[in-house]
Design brief:
Elements: E1 4-13, E2 16-26, E3 31-35, H1 42-50, E4 57-62, E5 65-66, H2 72-78, E6 80-83, H3 95-100, H4 115-120, H5 122-125, H6 137-150, E7 155-159, H7 167-183, E8 187-191, H8 195-201, E9 204-209, E10 212-218, H9 224-231
Parallel strand pairs: 3-8, 3-9, 6-7, 7-8
Antiparallel strand pairs: 1-2, 1-4, 4-5, 9-10
Length: 233
């Protein structure tokens, strides 16, 4: 069974339809990539998954449970962790305090920062007392991913994690995603426009245009030229 299963999802903003019959699944131990130009519906789909926007039709399931009208915090308790585009870390809180905001949904006995987060992103361990707003963009991205991992997610949702990030940290993030996939206990949904990053990491992929999935398949089925045509303006 897939960790995430979305079937025929429609979503509207007033009279404007943002998603058109979108179907997508994500499995534990695999990276599912969702690609497309800006404004084609990728972030709207993520908002539907995490509960920020209600869907008009279709169904989204998490480990078999229908999400329906569950609030975002209820979905987080089911194991959905979201790293938003732009990171949204708390600039006045320390790195440690930012990580500890992930404790909210955890049982008291689980409220600790897993050691593997510092193994994936060693820079964070030396900056625990620094304010989040004092970190570089790449360091903030690592912090945002680390904060999501504190929640022990079953589904990790990453929205454009390479945007505005220096190449060395993009490589660090890629290595972290690969390591998390190899653990096999979480599904990873990666929304991204950086094709080379996706091509290296994704097990399955889907491309959106005008709110609909127009190309999808496995990594072996990925046609670079066809995908790139949907990514260029």
């Amino acid at each position: 069974m897939s960790t995430l299963e979305a079937r025929n999802v429609d979503l509207f903003y007033g009279a404007a339809q943002a998603l058109r019959h979108v179907s997508l699944s994500a499995e534990a131990g695999k990276v599912t990539a969702l690609m497309g130009r800006n404004g084609v519906g990728k972030t709207s789909f993520l908002r539907a998954i995490i509960g920020e926007r209600a869907i008009a039709a279709g169904e989204i399931r998490m480990n078999g449970a229908v999400l329906g009208r569950m609030a975002p915090h209820e979905r987080a308790r089911l194991g959905i962790a979201y790293v938003p585009q732009g990171r949204d870390i708390f600039p006045l809180l320390s790195v440690r305090e930012n990580l500890e905001t992930g404790f909210a949904q955890l049982k008291r006995s689980e409220r600790n920062i897993p050691d593997y987060i510092f193994e994936l992103f060693p820079v964070l361990k030396g900056m625990l007392r620094r304010r989040g707003g004092d970190l570089s963009g790449g360091q903030q991205q690592q912090l945002a991913i680390g904060r999501a991992l504190v929640t022990r997610p079953k589904l990790l949702v990453l929205d454009e994690p390479t945007e505005g990030i220096q190449p060395s940290i993009i490589k660090d993030i890629g290595r972290a995603i690969s390591w998390l996939r190899e653990r096999g206990d979480m599904a990873i949904l990666l929304v991204e426009q950086y094709f080379d990053f996706v091509q290296e990491l994704a097990d399955t992929f889907a491309v959106m245009d005008r709110g609909a999935i127009v190309v999808s398949g496995t990594r072996a089925e990925l046609d670079p030229d066809k995908v790139r045509r949907h990514l260029t303006v």
